[in-house]
Design goal:
Elements (H helix, E strand, L loop, with lengths): L26 E5 L1 H4 L4 H9 L4 H19 L8 E5 L19
Antiparallel strand pairs: 1-2
Length: 104
């Protein structure tokens, strides 16, 4: 669909950044521009850090993104978020949180 919208400024080229993962990294976030239109990378990182369960963090980021879109526009953009918790390289284990009741 982006090709058809090219005339109004939609570009289909992704923004790509390469980062070396170190033991200091606890997680990484992949998200659409609908998230980063009104939230900075640091704000998203801070929101993830506030939640043990990445599903709760995704829900909070999506809700905040949606709210901010409607405060600034009469529409929203695609809001997609993926949060990946990284293996604890020092201990060789993956940090996991138990599923909340009703979430399987």
């Amino acid at each position: 669909g982006d090709l058809a919208a090219e005339g109004v400024g939609v570009i289909a080229d992704p923004e790509v950044k390469t980062v070396e993962i170190t033991p200091a990294h606890l997680f990484f976030v992949v998200a659409s521009d609908g998230v980063f239109e009104f939230l900075s990378s640091q704000e998203v990182v801070d929101m993830v850090a506030m939640h043990q369960d990445p599903r709760d963090a995704c829900a909070a980021i999506a809700a905040e993104s949606y709210k901010l879109w409607l405060e600034h526009e009469n529409r929203t953009d695609d809001i997609t978020i993926i949060i990946v918790h990284i293996r604890d390289a020092q201990n060789g284990v993956t940090k996991r949180t138990p599923a909340a009741p009703g979430r399987r």
